[in-house]
Amino acid sequence: MSGGPLAGIRVLEVGHMLAGPYATMMLADLGAEVTKIEPPTGDISRQVSDSYFASLNRGKRSIRLDLTTPEGRAALGDLAKDAHALLVNMKPSAIHRLGLTYEALREHNEKLVCVALTGFGLHAGDDPAFDYIVQAATGVASLTGDPDAPPTLPGYSSADNSAGLTAALGLLAQIVSGKGGQVEVNLRDVMLSQLNYRAAAYLNDGVEPRRHPNGAHSFYVPAQLFPTASGWLALFITHDRFWKSFATEAGINGFPTMTDRAENREEVLALVAETLRTDTASSWEARLRPTGVPVAAVRTLPEALAAAPEMIITAGPYRLVGPSIRTADPLSAYAPPPLLGEHGDA
């Protein structure tokens, strides 16, 4: 690989599975040199599948170190001397025990940035913090699904991925400051922060969030999923201009203002639902897109990937979803995920 705005930035990773490795892979996609420090048996995600591991670890180097031994910790100290940052995704007790904090490593490099990515905080204990657990604990599951149905979990690891994004941002922010130090990111706080306007409505106005059928928005009407003659359609009308364009195309009269539609929610939704059943989701999308109305047919993952071929990259033998950040100095190519300990000699 060559290029990328983070070329020359050296990052060490001690992580496993998803949140930490996703954070450092994004940095590698932007040109950083990421060295994955694995235990002798390797990151446990290697045991899931080759494609799973590749989806979180392309473009990295791998070395094996037993950090439970004095020799392993001494080797880590040597690596830290020339690194800009260390990102750790482990239980707090393991982070402290293995000396993976700034206080433990600053003797090797005062400017080292140490990021601890945990479930509930570096000093909050070792309660299990898997993605689904955090979604349940932070109210995300209770906000998801139809009101008469059980709480629902999103179909992907939203807490892990969001925490990875946040950790990468925190790491870069501390590097830009020019000072070393400890950065903390935990899954619980990340998910609570993403409930921004929902939490603000409760904290300031006492409004407890509730679920609406078909994922309807609590403020905007109509803004939800609708069944059509074939397939489901996401319609998201946030202001009166969108409504006017939609109503003209759909042949609907009345409810010209946001207030009108909010005060007559059930009547508006029934009218829109009846109208949308007269055509297919794909046809409605084709009809409404030129008008500027926010709309999309609900696609399967294979359909979504087929609609965005520019997002598919090649990394060795793997076809993967590529980075979502476009820069003026992109990588010229993407390296495959490393074999376990592949770069130990280097």
From TrEMBL:
The identity of this protein, by name, is Crotonobetainyl-CoA:carnitine CoA-transferase CaiB-like acyl-CoA transferase
User: What does the record give as the organism's lineage?
Assistant: Bacteria, Bacillati, Actinomycetota, Actinomycetes, Streptosporangiales
UniProt keywords (A-Z) are: Transferase
Top-level taxon in the UniProt lineage: Bacteria
PANTHER family reported in the protein's UniProt record: FATTY ACYL-COA TRANSFERASE RV3272-RELATED (PTHR48228:SF7), SUCCINYL-COA--D-CITRAMALATE COA-TRANSFERASE (PTHR48228)
Show the GO MF annotations. Answer: transferase activity
Keyword Transferase set for record: yes
